[in-house]
Amino acid sequence: MKGQDIVILLKLICLKKQEEEGNLNQPARGTGVDEPYSIRGLAASLGISKTEVHASINRSLFSGLAIKDRITGRIRPNHRALGNFITHGLKYVFPVKPGGITRGIPTAFAAPMLNSLLISPGEYIYIWPDAEGKIMGQFVEPLFKSVPEAVKNDEQLYEYLALIDAIRLGRPREAGLAAKLLEERLLKK
């Protein structure tokens, strides 16, 4: 597993929810614009190379974190398996140690969707480094280097990844609350 595997699976969940809500812009056929679910579409929206997206999907299928939909042929995240992996194993597979102070995008307990629910255990908030960021905080390595750019265009992906960082960085109480919130969102179909 690699960090981008989780990012790609979460993006697929976001796309499915946007499609169900009627908010997913489908490109017109013959325009040269890729479908959002395609390898090229995922690569463009996440800032991950097409080769890495393809390899990531293969790893996710092999591990059981994703399945191929029989009807559409699309790759679908296995919500329950993904939720269990994130809740119980992610912080051991992708441990995080906060670094120095820098400018960036708030994550974990400082993210806009969480800052009223969770309190940061430290003096400083956690951020993903971003040159355009206006907030100062402790540097946290995102699951993949393109995460700060990818979340600027997808609020739901931002929420999922911030909850994951709260699980990775939090004490048992905070991590438990973040895991519960993430599980509710992942299992809600």
SSE layout:
Elements: H1 3-21, H2 39-46, H3 50-63, E1 66-68, E2 75-77, H4 79-88, H5 90-93, E3 101-107, E4 126-129, E5 135-139, H6 147-150, H7 155-169, H8 172-187
Parallel strand pairs: 4-5
Antiparallel strand pairs: 1-2, 3-4, 3-5
Give a structural overview.
The longest helix is centred in the first third of the chain and has 19 residues, at 3-21. The protein is globular, with a radius of gyration of 16 Å. It has 8 helices and 5 strands. The strands form 2 sheets. Strands 3, 4 and 5 form a 3-stranded mixed beta sheet that branches. It has a two-stranded antiparallel ribbon with strand order 1-2. It has helices spanning 3-21, 39-46, 50-63, 79-88, 90-93, 147-150, 155-169, 172-187, and strands at 66-68, 75-77, 101-107, 126-129, 135-139. Strand 1 and strand 2 (75-77) form a beta hairpin. The protein is mainly alpha-helical. Helix 4 (79-88) runs antiparallel to helix 8.
Key attributes of the depicted protein:
8 helices; globular; mainly alpha; Arc Repressor Mutant, subunit A; 2 domains
For the largest beta-sheet, the strand count, sense and barrel status come to: 3 strands, mixed
Q: Using the CA coordinates, give the radius of gyration.
A: 16 Å
Distance from N terminus to C terminus (CA atoms, Å) equals: 25 Å
The class by helix and strand makeup works out as mainly alpha
Q: What's the CATH architecture name of the largest domain?
A: Orthogonal Bundle
Order of helices and strands: HHHEEHHEEEHHH
Q: Percent of residues in helical segments?
A: 40-55%
Q: What are the low-pLDDT stretches, counting only 5+ consecutive residues below 50? A: 28-33
Number of domains: 2
The CATH homologous superfamily of the largest domain is termed Winged helix-like DNA-binding domain superfamily/Winged helix DNA-binding domain
- Secondary structure: number of strands: 5
Strand content: 5-15%
Q: What is the average per-residue confidence, as pLDDT, rounded to a whole number?
A: 88
Quaternary structure state of the chains depicted: single chain
